[in-house]
Amino acid sequence: MQFLCIEAGESSEDIKDYINRELNKFDIDYFIENVVNSEGKITVKCKIDLSKIQEERQHIIFDEIKAGISSALADYIIKEYEEKLIYRIINNNYCYFNSLEKKEIFRIAVSTIKNSEKSFLNSLFQIRRRNIIIRKLLDYYQGANDLILDGFVNFRLKEYIKDLEEIVDKAVDDFLMEREYREFIRLLRYFVDIQEPKFNTIHVIAGYDDKYILLDENKREITNECIQEFMNDISSEEIKYDDLLVSSLITMAPRKIMIHGAKNFKNKELLETIKNVFWEKTFICAGCELCIVNMVRNEEKV
Hints:
Helices cover about 60% and strands about 15% of the residues. With about 300 residues, the chain is α/β, with parallel strands linked by helices. The chain has 2 domains: about 55-185, no CATH class; about 200-300, 2-Layer Sandwich (Nucleotidyltransferase, domain 5). Strand 5 and strand 6 form a beta hairpin. Helix 1 (about 10-25) packs antiparallel against helix 2 and helix 7 crosses helix 8. The chain is elongated and about 90 Å long.
């Protein structure tokens, strides 16, 4: 009879479920029970009967069982500990943020560890973190069959926690960049609000070559006259048409902006910036004569 014990605290039933699902994969007899010590702490005790297995193979099967239980415990640790560890890291390493800021950083970090955006790179990092836990559990079980889960997570998973700290650091960077972006948008909105509108409507046509055509409400091209004042101070090598477009629109402060050929915006952040700055004034054309003509021109140039 072999034994594996996991001190689990209040989550013993959940751990029993994880372990039971794993042990069911083996053709063995086993029994799982909760044992309460004198301090009231609960230990999940697994009694594993290998008597049906040939004696020379019992240690091999027991190693496979420990590997299976390590895999199950890794899933449990990720589910039950990961967000708590993220929260602790934020409170310990970034105590100078207020509660609302910490909450937003937590949201960003959790979105990363859960791979909400289905990123291939984040999927690889998820696998890496899980493998770190499994490897540490297997190393531990080489010399002991009794495991105190809280102590193991806090003192044996330094590499895993280091990975979580890096995720929190990245979440803080993303939070600060987003905050700076919001401040930037707020400033641009202020500039737009204090400007006297020079046009009722500006049509913005996105070309395939990262350049833009500007038309007034009468669909007369005004591109050159709008950007010329900015071009005078910029060398041809330094020209960034995305910046010129935003600067021109802010200077003109039109009452309405109609975007044609939105799918041709290679810089999607630029389109979002225009929407955010002119948030009630920006409209995306679903298709018109201007869109068709521009599409034909782009196809001819490709």
